[in-house]
Fold this sequence. Notes:
The protein has helices at 11-27, 30-34, 36-58, 62-88, 94-136. It is mainly alpha-helical.
Amino acid sequence: MVKLTRFEDVEAWQKARELTRAVYRITSCGEFARDFGLRDQIRRAAVSIMSNIAEGFERKGDKEFKHFLSFAKGSVGEVKAQLYVALDVGLISETQFRELYEASTETGRLIGGFIKYLNTSRESRVKSCDSKKRNSE
């Protein structure tokens, strides 16, 4: 695997950025732009995904990074829930809902995969260290 040196290189962050851009675009038009509460809440949730990935990455520890990735994944769920509200009250079309929901799902899948990778890579490092200790004894 390629060593990531910047949070901008994290694929989940890149997808979260695309999702955030799409959320801002859709919430800037029509009735959605005038529903200040829902508009601001879904925007904050989308920005939170990006921000938590970046903040976790910058902390430089797998444990803390996973913690922030967990927050980011929670914010994905928040965006999805708010998309249902927007659909149910007629602020977005079924097509817009599906597109944003799929983008949210993909972002969440990438975050979940990264969490799994961090768990697996840590376990591998621990096992590798344990086996080296046993071999040197």
